Amino acid sequence: MATKIVQSLFDIKNLPDDAQKVLRDFDQIAQSAMPANSKQLVALPKIIRELSHQMTDDRGSRRLGYMNEKTFLASYVRYFMWWNLVRLARLFSNLDFGFLSGGGVCLDIGSGPLTLPCALWLARPDLRQKKLVWYVMDISQLALSLGEEIFLSVAAATGGEPWKIVRVKGPLGTAVKEKARFVTCANMFNELLQSRGGEPPDYLAKKYSQALFKYLDFESGPANEGRAASEGSAANDRSGPAVFLAEPGTPNSARFVSLMRDAFIRRGLFALAPCPHQQSCPMDGRRAGKGGANGKWCNFAFDTDDAPKKLLALSAKAGIPKERAVISFVLASAEIACKPKNCGTRESDASPKTVDEKKSFASPRSGGLSGLEKVAATDTACAAREAQASPKSGGLLRVASDIIRLPPEREGQKPRVGHYACSEQGLVLALSKGGKRVYSGDLLEVENDFTPKSGAETIGKSKAAARFSRKKVLASPKSGRRSPSQESDLGSRGRSSSRERDSRPRRDAKTGALIVEI
User: Fold this and answer.
1) How far apart are the first and last CA of the chain?
2) pLDDT top residue among 508 and 64
3) How far apart, in whole angstroms, are the C-alpha atoms of residue 121 and residue 153?
4) Is the dihedral of CA 26, 191, 135, 339 positive or negative?
5) What's the 3-state SS for 175-200?
6) Which terminus of the chain, N or C, has fewer Cβ atoms within 10 Å?
7) CA dihedral defined by 374, 375, 378, 383, rounded to 10 degrees?
8) Rounded distance, CA 63 to CA 185, Å?
9) Cβ atoms of residues 246 and 186 within 8 Å
10) 185 Cβ partners below 8 Å, 6+ apart?
11) Predicted confidence (pLDDT) per residue in 373-389, tens digit
12) Using omega within 30 degrees of 0 as the cis cutoff, is the peptide bond preceding 408 cis?
């Protein structure tokens, strides 16, 4: 089966050389912004280990305003901020930020030392010349002040006039002077939720998504509407406001990100990444650690072989070495025109007036479309463009795991390898054929017509997939095991028509995942 990699989330080749240089020597920028003497630098690994302990398995001992303490803030910048810059810069260099092509107002909530604006500046030289105004919000004025100094140093090291920074002291919900085209939160909810442990996560997702939406600018319409061509807006950019949320790739954090994604979609946004679809998340972490179809949580990782050597050495000294960098995230926008990177639809296939743009960008408070109506309209538009594509347009899979070692199909054969992946049909177990190497975060296009067979979902027609572990196949999510008559009927049909048998979809007995060769 023909498979091609459409996008990689962490391809370091897309990270600019000047950004890689800044990341390699970020300790020098931190030292310039917040000087430390030799005695403080010697004690740094111990303080990092203590702060890491407080941020993971002993969170009750950490005060919410820990970034107001200079010792912890200095350690945070020299280690945790550095690692977060590595994660976010790698990710941002591979995402599509077309919705910022015309510039505009951005808001980073829980900004701390401005990690996210720094990472975006490093990753996207195409945005450095845009007229962006960043409101950065945090409860620590000390962290914001230090972060602005670091951002200016990063901008000076890479060239270009830095974006305007407006500091806002306060928590989520604090008023700002302007509505934002882009709202971001990185590693904020992970800390915020620890103080709300008794409340259901779905309730908190509804509450916090509503709080984020109050900051979004739904009134300005598409990015190029009302903007002069001299401001650099793209002529075909019809995107609305966007929101980005990133958290550590732990089960609880990933579960919350998935719930926030669902809330965004219900409110009318379009999940641009990492999702290859707008359906329910098949890796929502609802039963993380308990196995089964809902035992997986959405997270992506890359090896740290290319991470700054000095950062790896500092990690080792602190006793918390990192072999992999992990993240859970969602990028969503009120975007109508689907891009090839995020929905698999070719630009030439886009029909510019499929949906009424004015209604698509209507504020939830206005008389425009409701959230569900906007989702339906967006899905209809995307489906129409997919239908206009070639008859053999591919199905999309987002790889969301490391390599999985599987037993051989038959005795004497080599063991197989695969990956769990997300698709419009749900969870997929993608079996690697012929040694094809893919990585966590890769977006794959599998040659497939997605035609249902015999009332069942079909993601591929691979013979190997059809024969895979026949005794462990799930008839359907509801029916469980087949009755003897069903087994007999299956056997007779299998003997009478091997071609029909080979085309039937197969599911993994452990997770219920559809099986497809790549």
Assistant:
1) 6
2) 508
3) 11
4) positive
5) CCCCCECEEEEECCHHHHHHHHCCCC
6) N
7) -140
8) 20
9) yes
10) 108, 109, 110, 212, 244, 245, 246
11) 343 334 433 433 343 23
12) no
CA distances from 290 to 248, 296, 347, 511 (A): 20, 9, 41, 11
Within its chain, how far is the Cα of 245 from the centroid? Answer: 8
- Minimum mean pLDDT among 51-55, 340-344, 411-415, 469-473: which range? 469-473
Query: Any idea what DSSP says for residue 80?
Result: I
Packed helices 26-33 and 82-92: angle between N→C axes, nearest 10 degrees: 130
The widest CA-to-CA distance across the chain, in whole angstroms, is 80
Interval 147-181: pLDDT, tens: 999 999 999 999 989 999 999 999 999 999 999 99
Is 143:65 a contact under the CB 8 Å cutoff? no
Closest CA to 30 of 357, 295, 323, 310: 310
Residue 5 near residue 432, CB atoms below 8 Å: no
Question: Are residues 381 and 336 in contact, defined by beta-carbon separation less than 8 angstroms?
Answer: yes
Q: Tell me which residue of 388, 507, 394, 397 sits closest to 441, measured CA to CA.
A: 397
Residue 368: phi and psi, rounded to 5, are: -75, -160
Q: Mean pLDDT in the chain?
A: 76
Average pLDDT estimate for 384-408: 64
Question: What is the value of pTM for the model shown?
Answer: 0.78
User: Across-strand partners of 193?
Assistant: none
Q: Where are the alpha helices (DSSP H) in 361-403?
A: 371-388
Find the mean pLDDT for residues 80-96: 96
pLDDT for 299:
92
Give the C-alpha separation, 251 to 286, whole Å. 9
Candidate from 66-75, 113-122, 132-141, 276-285 with smallest mean pLDDT:
66-75
The whole-angstrom separation of Cα 382 and Cα 278 is: 10
Q: Are the CB atoms for 132 and 163 separated by under 8 Å? A: yes
> Which helix (DSSP H) or strand (DSSP E) does residue 427 occupy?
strand 426-431
Print burial letters for 214-234: b (CB count within 10 Å at least 16), e (below 16).
Answer: ebbbbebbbbbeebeeeeebb
Chain position carrying tokens 């469980």: 480
226 φ/ψ angles, rounded to the nearest 5 degrees? 80, 10
Strand, coil or helix: what is 490? helix
Q: Are residues 452 and 458 in contact, defined by beta-carbon separation less than 8 angstroms?
A: yes
Distance between CA 347 and CA 349 in Å, rounded?
A: 5
